[in-house]
Each structure stands twice: as structure tokens, then as C-alpha cells.
Specification:
Blueprint (H helix, E strand, L loop, with lengths): L1 H13 L2 H8 L14 H8 L1 H26 L1 H16 L12 H11 L1 H18 L2 H21 L12 H25 L1
């Protein structure tokens, strides 16, 4: 059943929703702006409405992947489905395995698996990006903080809200999100220097 959660999650994450939404309003995120099919590029290319729609659909993909994994296998399936959805977004087969950066999907995964994590991680990531003047640096520090927060959450035996069990599943989620999403932002920093 874990294999089913992985396949469903990857399939949901790989839906080229940002690209399709942009095409519907006359833009091509693959050829305009940064070329990245994600929320940040949608904001630059198509404005707030397009960016909001992209973010909402990306979060929905992550949320559904976790919920379906949870229904199939429990917490382990939820983590597998969620991490696989993030992977599908980043390593998108429709775009020769070069998709988005996965943060929108990760937000939906977090909302479904560890909702209190959104309250912890999002303000830190946004504030760090603003202070450092770099979305990539803010994202990397935010991802590291997210992972550290999952470990602290388990160590302090805090509730997750709804979603997965605290313990190994929550730490696996934190480590998985970091390991899957961070390389794209490291590559952005390398290109910037």
C-alpha cells in the first residue's frame, strides 16, 4: 500500500497545473520570466491572481496526496504520499524532470500532515527571505528551520493539530522535505554567484 501512496502522490505532484493555469490566461511559465513553473514566476509573469491560483492548486495537490496516503496506510502512507507529491512537482516528467521548486506542494503537505507547522515555518521562511534579500537563501534557511522544528516538536511531545502521528513520521516528513526541496535552491544560489 505504501507503493500506492507513492504513485498517487507522485502523479498528483506531477500534474503540470501551474503551466496549464498560465496557458489558460495567455502566458507560458516555461518561456517567460524565470522559466520556472511555480508561484513566484506566476506572480512576475501573470500577477497576483495567477500566482494565487497556482499556489492554491499546488497546495491542493500536496494536501490530497497526504490525505489519500493517510487513508491507505496511515501516517507512513501520508508521509510517503506527501513527499512523493513534492518530488513529482520538482522532478516533473512532463518537463524532462525539471519542474517547479515544490514549496507550494510542501505547504499543502504540511497543512494536511502537520498544520501547526505552517504557523511555525512560513513566517520564518518569509521573514528570512525578506531580511536576506534572497528567496533562495530564505527558502534554504526556512527548510532547515522546518526540519529542526519537526525534531523539536517530537522531542517536546507537542500536538500536530490533525494529520500524522508525532514521532518518526513527523521527523521523516521534516527530513524528507529538506532533502527533496533544498537542492533546487542550492542550485539557484550557485547560479547567482
Amino acid at each position: 500500500m505504501i507503493a500506492a501512496a507513492l504513485l498517487i502522490g507522485f502523479g498528483l505532484g506531477a500534474i503540470p497545473s501551474a503551466h496549464l493555469l498560465a496557458l489558460a490566461v495567455g502566458h507560458n511559465l516555461r518561456t517567460e520570466g524565470t522559466g520556472n513553473p511555480g508561484t513566484a514566476n506566476a506572480l512576475v509573469v501573470g500577477g497576483k491572481k495567477l500566482a494565487g491560483a497556482v499556489l492554491l492548486v499546488d497546495m491542493l495537490k500536496g494536501f490530497l496526496a497526504v490525505q489519500l496516503g493517510l487513508a491507505l496506510v496511515g501516517s507512513g502512507g501520508a508521509v510517503a504520499g506527501g513527499l512523493s507529491a513534492i518530488s513529482g512537482q520538482i522532478f516533473n516528467p512532463w518537463f524532462r524532470f525539471r519542474g517547479g521548486k515544490g514549496l507550494g506542494v510542501a505547504g499543502g503537505v504540511t497543512m494536511a500532515a502537520w498544520p501547526l507547522g505552517l504557523v511555525v515555518a512560513v513566517p520564518f521562511m518569509a521573514g528570512t527571505a525578506r531580511l536576506m534579500g534572497s528567496a533562495a537563501k530564505g527558502a534554504l534557511l526556512g527548510l532547515a528551520f522546518y526540519t529542526a522544528a519537526t525534531i523539536a516538536w517530537v522531542a517536546l511531545d507537542l500536538p500536530v493539530g490533525w494529520g500524522i502521528d508525532t514521532g518518526v513520521a513527523l521527523v521523516a516528513l521534516g527530513l524528507g522535505v529538506l532533502l527533496i526541496a533544498a537542492p533546487k535552491f542550492v542550485a539557484d544560489l550557485r547560479r547567482a554567484t
